[in-house]
Amino acid sequence: LLVAMLVAAWLRNSRYGAWLQAVRDNEDSAAALGVNVFRVKLRAVMISGALMAAGGAFYSQYLHYIDPHLAYGPSVSVEALLGPIVGGIGTLWGPVLGAAVLHLLGELTRNLMGEAPGMNLVVYGVVLVVMVLFLPSGFIGLLRRLRGKAKT
Predict the structure, then answer these.
(1) Mean pLDDT, 10 residues at a time, over the chain (152 residues)?
(2) Which residues of 21-45 are buried (b: 16+ CB within 10 A; e: fewer)?
(3) Measured torsion, CA atoms of residues 138, 142, 147, 148, in degrees rounded to the nearest 10
């Protein structure tokens, strides 16, 4: 996690990060400005693959077992996509905060509801609807708004 956060911080403040944003926003405009779109995309896939390979290696060492359902089941997929939404998409600390909140919420659901299959996914669905309706910028956006109101 620390390495991934350092890479994300580097991307935020580097020239390559600006190239990535330019390619994401408009490939043709980025190419017109002299950005090698293919090279930028290839390097992004390499960085992503390296981080995912390291994460997978640590994950398999932790579990001592590899099962597609453990790594690619609906619960894991939902948590991976919902974490940044809850924390704040496009922020450095948002996905970390979202993952922590979801983990605590999942454990709380398991403790209150027992091992009812799929109950945590129902709670995650409710959280997703609430976040989209009331906090579209996630908890980081809420904290920024509260900090802005505190300054005025």
Answers:
(1) 92 94 95 95 96 88 79 76 89 91 88 81 88 90 85 61
(2) ebbeeeeeebeeeebeeeebeeebe
(3) 100
7 is written with which tokens?
A: 């890479």
Q: CB of 20 within 8 A of CB of 40?
A: yes
Q: What is the pLDDT, as a whole number, of residue 151?
A: 66
Residue 4, C-beta contacts closer than 8 angstroms, at least 6 positions apart: 51, 55
pLDDT of residue 152: 56
C-alpha 83/C-alpha 135 separation (Å) is: 13
DSSP string, 52-92: HHHHHHHHHHHHS---HHHHHSHHHHHHHHHHHHHH-TT-S
Calpha distance 29→82 (Å, rounded): 31
Q: How far apart are CA 28 and CA 101, in angstroms?
A: 39
The length of the chain in residues reads: 152
d(CA 76, CA 69): 9
